[in-house]
Design goal:
Shape: flat
Helix content: 25-40%
Radius of gyration: 20 Å
Distance between the termini: 26 Å
Number of strands: 11
Number of helices: 9
Oligomer: single chain
């Protein structure tokens, strides 16, 4: 499998490269690199507006990529918005919250799932326990006290690798009618994601953490949650027509994808999903658990 990753063919101080920073950015397999190159070599057209052959082929591959990625997480393609990364996805949701609202999140969240809430809303951080687990009693108490519009949580924490109890968190949020945003950036690479089963309103992840390209990510807005979003950026590609006194926006998800998107990145991310499927998510999860056990024993 090392041979499938070109970066692992180099050496460092005369030894084969070992990469231990996948939580920040994973390496990219050859299949993904070839998908990127194929777009630039065979159909480097723009999407959503051209009628010539290159544009039509690019548009087909771009929308096929959306379907592939949506299928990978058991979502509908209409619910999948392409963004630069999970950080932009969270900022899109945060900027759509209006009025004097509160968001509750765990103290273990990384900056991208903390600072956007502080800037756009009143953010309340729930305590964590000594082992990195969320203090569910304190979390529930904060939700009951503040009646937040939204609860934000990572599926797997980026620092400790703790798997958060998402069903319990969703149940706590629903008691007060709060929506739930799940940051799945650390779980998408090595844990099966079934968004219908998780029952969160918003789920985001970044391509570069799951063998995909940098600069491409996804926000899945499930059910009517997508109708609560306000575009973070507007312009060409997000509208059907513009008159002197009126604008007709495109249907979701395209109204949220103004300008030329990262077309190659979307195609590459779809190739990454296919690659992870070919290896087998269950096999990856088992291997990661084994590595974790060995690391703890040797440390």
């Amino acid at each position: 499998m090392r041979e499938e990753f070109p970066a692992l063919q180099r050496t460092d101080h005369g030894r084969p490269l070992v990469h231990l920073d996948s939580a920040a950015t994973s390496l990219t397999p050859r299949a993904v690199i070839e998908a990127l190159v194929s777009y630039y070599e065979t159909c480097p057209g723009n999407v959503g507006r051209g009628i010539h052959r290159l544009a039509q082929e690019a548009n087909r591959r771009f929308e096929d990529a959306r379907e592939t990625i949506a299928s990978f997480v058991n979502a509908d393609a209409r619910e999948l918005i392409f963004v630069r990364n999970a950080t932009e996805a969270i900022n899109l949701v945060a900027s759509s919250l209006t009025g004097d609202v509160t968001v509750v999140h765990a103290l273990s969240e990384h900056h991208s799932n903390m600072l956007p809430w502080r800037r756009a809303t009143r953010a309340i951080a729930a305590r964590i326990l000594a082992d990195g687990q969320i203090d569910l009693d304190h979390f529930a108490a904060q939700v009951e006290l503040h009646h937040p519009a939204l609860v934000a949580c990572s599926h797997v924490t980026n620092a400790w690798g703790v798997l958060n109890p998402i069903p319990e968190i969703v149940e706590i949020a629903r008691r007060v009618g709060a929506r739930v945003l799940l940051d799945a950036s650390q779980s998408a690479p090595h844990r099966e994601l079934d968004l219908r089963q998780l029952q969160c309103d918003y789920v985001c992840f970044s391509g570069h953490k799951m063998c995909g390209p940098t600069g491409i990510g996804v926000l899945c807005a499930l059910g009517d949650a997508i109708d609560q979003l306000v575009p973070l950026c507007v312009g060409g590609g997000s509208v059907e027509s513009v008159q002197d006194d009126d604008v007709h926006w495109r249907a979701a998800p395209h109204r949220f994808e103004a300008g030329t998107p990262h077309i190659a990145g979307a195609i590459g991310l779809a190739a990454a999903c296919d690659y992870l499927d070919s290896v087998g998510i269950q096999a990856i999860e088992t291997h990661v658990a084994g590595l974790s056990t060995v690391a703890r024993q040797r440390l």
